[in-house]
Amino acid sequence: MLLGIPKIISPQLIKIIMEMGHGDEIVIADANFPAASIAKETCSGEIVYCQGVGTVEFLDAILKLMPLDYAVESPVVCMAAPKDVETPEIHGRFKQILNSHGYSDDKIDFVPRFDFYDRAKKSYAVVSTGEGARFANIIIKKGVIKE
Q: Which residues are part of the catalytic machinery?
């Protein structure tokens, strides 16, 4: 065990986020996301299973360790719900977590499902959570540590 690291962050994930560089992205996926097939196409080919945790809790934990990229317009991308589906409540919860870590929620981009899958394939790795909410998938872009 280490001090200051949320207990839901596994040793495998510490290794992955330490390997990631500025501009690399990581997917935090809900339980319905095709995590294994998407992960095979990522830069690392890695999938981290975190089944006992939801995406909101996981986002909160990872933002304690990893800064978002301040140099891009949208360092956060969420899977958008189709036009005929009400905006998911979880999107509001993502915004709250971002705000609690000092990030503006206007930095979030919402993209359609298949565009999200295409972007996820270009990410560094995928974290598969046990999140049951629909459209609860999020990609975050790693930034740099400011001195």
A: 22
